[in-house]
Amino acid sequence: MTNKSLKNFNSLRFEYSCESLYEVKSYEDLYQISKKIRKSKNRFWILGEGTNVVILNNLEGIVIKNNFLGINIMGNSVESASGENWDNLVKVCLEANLYGFENLSGIPGSVGGSPIQNIGAYGVEVSSFIDYVETMNLNTGNLEVFNLQECKFGYRESIFKKLPNHFITKIKFSLSEAFKPNLAYESIPKDIDINSGEEVRSVILKIRNDRLINPEEEPNVGSFFKNPVVSKTHLDKLLSDYSDLKFYGIKENQYKISAAWLIEKIGMKGHEDKDCGVSKKHSLVLVNSSEKSENIINLSNKIRDEIFKRFDIKLENEPTLIT
Predict the structure, then answer these.
(1) 306 phi, psi to nearest 5 deg
(2) Catalytic: which of 223, 279, 293, 300?
(3) Same structural domain for residues 155 and 203?
(4) Which of 77, 178, 275, 316 would bridge with 290, disulfide CB 3.0–4.6 Å?
(5) Domain of 247, in residue numbers
(6) CB-count exposure of residue 184 (10 Å: 0-12, 13-18, 19+)
(7) Distance separating alpha carbons of residues 175 and 241, to the nearest angstrom
(8) Burial of 302 (0-12, 13-18, 19+ CB in 10 A)
(9) pLDDT tens digits for range 11-65
(10) Is 223 noted as a catalytic residue in this protein?
(11) Assigned domain for 217 exists
(12) Which of 13, 34, 156, 279 is catalytic?
């Protein structure tokens, strides 16, 4: 499809377009697109559900929409096609009495986006369950498989952020057949009786519904910024000025600072700007009502500049910017 609007393909609802859009649902579809790309030398972009991307302008090239579907369960192993909805996979696994994904309930987006971002929530990251990620290198048409070590997972990071030519086709996960709830995260209530994975999922979904914004109601990409990581020296300096600082130790001499706390401390929670703003429910969520990206980018830069000036901390974007 040529000159296709991308408004329905990104959760910020920006009204940009691309020269051509192809929806792929099979390896043959994808291989044919890879041949077209190699022949034409056109630029291309890969989209799942568009819930973690910020499109900055019209895209002069090919957009490939991922519609790969299928979930295969063998014992505690789960193979999922990359175009499956993430939360649907969580539900299917719970129905099969496989556990581990419960705390990741309600995260918007596709399964294929989960390793790129190494999605995480409420004390759990998807990398804890990944055996391998299968991709097609669209520059060669070859399938390439990355084992856990080769994925180079980190906090909201993976090798795939550096491999935009690789289309993730499927992912193999290993889950647990024994239910063991992970309730350590601070915002999970400690005074509740949990006896099943479904109950954990219900608790997580309630927390998300209370604190986060449905992009169908107010366009957003969830958390716009990562939680920054600082050294012990930097942490001590911050604590000397702010005794209420929210932080978490992650490894020796590395501490994760709550980006939401930083934004609230500079008085930006609930701030309204031109056709965009900071959510009143959660300060990491920037909401949009514009057809273009300029205003929300300006707002994110304003937040970033003010936090650097006040705390000497550089905030990084969590979503991927596409241009």
Answers:
(1) -70, -40
(2) 223
(3) yes
(4) 275
(5) 229-322
(6) exposed
(7) 43
(8) middle
(9) 999 999 999 999 999 999 999 999 999 999 889 999 999 999 999 999 999 999 9
(10) yes
(11) no
(12) 156
